[in-house]
């Protein structure tokens, strides 16, 4: 008997149970009435959004989520809903999925594989289930799984052995560059091995540091993708099975790898602003590549009328920096302001003259400039209710080439997980769509402009050297020895590694930003600030005690 | 046969394997030669310190830790060492303890109970062991356990059943107020039920947000504490067993509850400064109670010559605030500076005049003042290499009554987990030892002094009302309904809860501070910034869909 299954790729506000339930109901009614679906599948923990973090420890929150399931069951008929929720049973909490049909719970599944690595803390909250779940619906035997289950060996297979003819998977699978291909490859390999079609429904949207990219899909029993929803947008679509065979095949084209990252940044800003109720965004525009890119992304996310740019020149700002910043703002049509920081810098210099008497200039004086900019931008943010975006990239965050409470001041750091070389690629990508960043901004040597004729390369290895070292050290957890063995100069490696280690305290106070790499700073990389580990080969680590 | 067991209550620098191993060797040689101990017990994961967080994901770090165990085994003879380390076996990592004796591994135990709640993430790193471990040493059968094992029902009992006559427990048990009594009560109850003596060795010292309080102890088979080491300090001591009976009984007296918190704060500042290599500390001194307390603690931790105080008056600063701040600094003998913030405030007011034209004064102007102070203090910190201490308390951190990059600017926030009412108690406690905080500072109505005649109570419920509400909401995860049902006014509860929810973004960028409560902000309470949960009774949460 033919079965139409709707895939509800939904964007939730974490914790807003009432709004989420309304969305679920609206999507179900649409799927029933407009798509003639018999069953609709929602993402993992769809009642509450993902990840709800320590809200899951609150009894009132869990009670509300469990009640919401009964509410849902009572309010939609004529279509079966597969929804995720934190199921309370006695004192145990499960990451569960239920099938609601005609006011009753037709089936219930408890997630077996609870990820507790990277950004995931599911064993902090949930107890794992132990059993496969297969239910009959209109003559078809359907198996349920949740996210990590289909990455782990054996669960798809066990569900098929329990009698399933089709497997549904509810997901909240966060994006990083390359993740879509990885996800499809890993899951389709298991699907092919088990020889059973699978319907994969993913959440979409930004939630603090995470982007959920959607890209829900259907794989046939041979492990081929026969349906794919769009990336980075909500979509409720339908597929029709007949005897386990998909009747239609429509695959949304995939974005290029660089376009994926760009779209992730756009969605990240858009959802952080929208879900947190800001009236737009503002940022400091320096004439450099980083702020130019953040401006472009912000305008693509929010519209030019919702973004303001602030130029804050000092005595060290080159004229071409001002010119280029003005060109950027004007090309995108955003309102711009120019406020020299000199009066504040002069004031602080005078105020500190006594306590600094007899000392030499150092980075202190550079930091004062950056912090004067931070005060200006935060004042404008406070007054206008606009989100202040910081413009630091991952290379800078890694080595601490940034001023706490200065250029690091802000509510959201869109490119904090984007290495400098990728910043250039993204700028070129955006310019290929329409020219918004002057070519000179891309080709100039990068400078913080906090001292005369300053260049990033005065303090750091060239980014062509630095970025690959950082990728190995931060993302791949390689040791300095490993990285040197791969062909990098020992002095560059030692400098980069030491800077990364020493600057954890800055990162701990940085605003949240968008994870686009396999290992972002934040929840994804949990390092102690106080740490005596400085690497070193084990054989040379110890002095022989006397 | 008599057996002398040494308890090595040690303060480690997390990650510094070489230094930790040297400490272990020195303590072992001291225990062997001076205390005539046959066996010495170190804390949990003593080779690396606790918690090493994501250092545990690095292959080079794990290899170094495992090699260090062999190094240790080779370098100390004549005494058995019981040390903790992250044991790599194939691709599995265990939280293990080994007994090293005469160059060989005499026994090995893998922790069975891996805590993954509160500040603990052990399931992120480790696989649990499944077996008890009992070894014979000089005719005594000794069982091994690690920390959480002895909190969980059944593991002490199973170890006794496996033949143990004495149980050793290696621990890294962090402090919070009341923890010492709770720890001894829970463990002694199990010891009594199992009828077997237990030697409990705890780490001591500060590590980022955690304080390990030491207070190692020995319980006899009746569950009575028959030996206790000091709190909040290193100590290597020895106890002698003969046929399972302790031959000596020396219990260090316990600090009073308020003294415990004070000592935790002192140790926290001391270790953060020492382990991170700062040349002392500085702070802004306002004449209010919070900065007065932080100054006293800092001086008790570091000595007066290592602490500097900065007075930064504005037009809103009362004369008595300046007088009292001067009295505080002088009473403690610290160097003080006075820098008016007016020139910088005037500069920013002028610089922002155009963009703020036609707007009304609001908290923006207050924040500018606080941020000018932040710039001054950070400049002095940068120039001198002194750690900037923030002075905000937990009540303020909870409701966001603080300025990001203003009074929240700094490297360490000693009292961020101390509610305002406890700040007063701590001030009175410290004054009872010697008068260092003027009585007027304790009795004056608290004020941020950012606007004319401002009082905290203009914006917040009185702390006598606010603090108990916050304790219920933040520490106990009670709902607003629960708190109102306990007798608090609905409007006070609604206001407090809403402020806590809305200010997660500020807390996310706050410096680390010392956990002294059962639920601190930071690793201990992981809330989303973007959250739509606003509580509400489940029955009223949903509008009936049309």
Q: Describe it for me?
A:
2 copies of one chain form a homodimer. The first copy, chain A, is of the alpha/beta class. In chain A, α15 (463-475) packs across α17 (490-502). In chain A, β1, α1 and β2 form a beta-alpha-beta unit. Helix content of chain A is 38%, strand content 18%. At the A-B interface, α1, α2, α6, α9 and α10 of A face α1, α2, α6, α9 and α10 of B.
What separation lies between the terminal Cα atoms of chain A? 82 Å
Q: What would you call the structural class of chain A?
A: alpha/beta
Parts with pLDDT < 50 across at least 5 consecutive residues of chain A: none
Radius of gyration of chain A: 26 Å
Shape of chain A: elongated
Q: Give the full name of the CATH homologous superfamily of the largest domain in chain A.
A: Carbon-nitrogen hydrolase
Notable characteristics:
homodimer; 546 residues; alpha/beta; Rossmann fold; seven-stranded mixed beta sheet; elongated
Summarize the structure.
Chain A has 546 residues and is an alpha/beta fold. Helices cover 38% and strands 18% of the residues of chain A.
Strand and helix layout:
The structure is a homodimer of 546-residue chains.
Chain A: E1 3-9, H1 17-33, E2 39-41, H2 59-75, E3 80-89, E4 92-101, E5 104-110, H3 122-125, E6 134-137, E7 140-146, H4 155-161, E8 166-171, H5 179-194, E9 198-202, E10 204-207, E11 210-213, E12 217-219, E13 225-228, E14 235-242, E15 245-246, E16 250-251, H6 257-275, E17 281-284, H7 289-302, E18 307-311, H8 319-332, E19 335-338, H9 342-351, H10 363-384, E20 387-388, H11 394-399, H12 420-433, H13 439-443, H14 456-459, H15 463-475, H16 480-485, H17 490-502, H18 504-508
Parallel strand pairs in A: 1-2, 2-3, 7-8, 8-9, 13-16, 17-18, 17-20, 18-19
Antiparallel strand pairs in A: 1-14, 3-4, 4-5, 6-7, 9-12, 10-11, 12-13, 14-15
